[in-house]
Amino acid sequence: MDKRVPMMVIERNHEIEPQLGNATFQYYQARFAIPSSELGSNNSIYCSFNARGVHFIMLGAFVDYNAT
Fold first, then answer.
1. Comparing C-alpha atoms, which of 26, 24, 27, 28 is closest to residue 11?
2. Residue 46 in contact with residue 54, Cβ under 8 Å?
3. Which Gene3D superfamilies does this one have (predicted)?
């Protein structure tokens, strides 16, 4: 990928790797510097941002759901 082209990545099932303590996506989060806190999210698996008049929603397929 050209370093001059901005890109945003999101996790998928290929990013689930065996890790100590049953933590998930630790390697993914270490590889990709997702600016989640700057985008108003407390998790790098989901966030949203605006760019050139378009609202992008980055929603990973493995976001934990809790109805409470």
1. 28
2. no
3. 3.60.21.10
Assign 4 to helix, strand or coil: coil
Q: What is the residue whose two structure tokens read 């999210």?
A: 41
Name residue, tokens 């689930």. Answer: 16
CA dist 36 to 5, 18, 19, 28, Å?
19, 24, 22, 14
Q: Measuring CA to CA, how many Å separate 11 from each of 35, 36, 68?
A: 14, 13, 24
CB atoms within 10 A of CB 57: 9
Euclidean distance between CA atoms 43 and 45, whole angstroms: 5
Q: So what's the pLDDT on residue 59? A: 78
Q: What is the CA radius of gyration of the chain?
A: 13
